[in-house]
Amino acid sequence: MTSYQFPDDFMWGAATAAYQIEGAIAEDGRKPSVWDSFSAIPKRTLNGDTGAIACDHYHRYPEDVRLMAELGIKHYRFSIAWTRVIPDGRGTVNEAGIDFYKRLVDCLREYGITPHATLFHWDSPQTLEKEYGSWQNRQIARDFADYVTAVVSRLGDRITNWMTINEIPCFTHMGYEVGKVPPHAPGTVVKNRKAVWQTSHHALLAHGMGCQAIRAASKVPCSVALVDNFGVTVPIHESPANIEAAKRAFHTHWYNGGIIVPALTGAYSPALLEQLGKDAPDIQPGDLETIYQPLDALGFNVYTGTYVRAADNQAGYETLNFPKGYPRLNMPWLQIVPECIYWGIRHISETLGRSDLPIFISENGCAAEDELIHKEVIDSDRILYLRQHFRSAHRAVSEGYPLKGYFVWSLLDNFEWAWGYDRRFGLIYTDYRTQERTPKASYHWYSECIRQNRVV
Question: Does residue 3 form part of some domain?
Answer without folding.
Answer: no
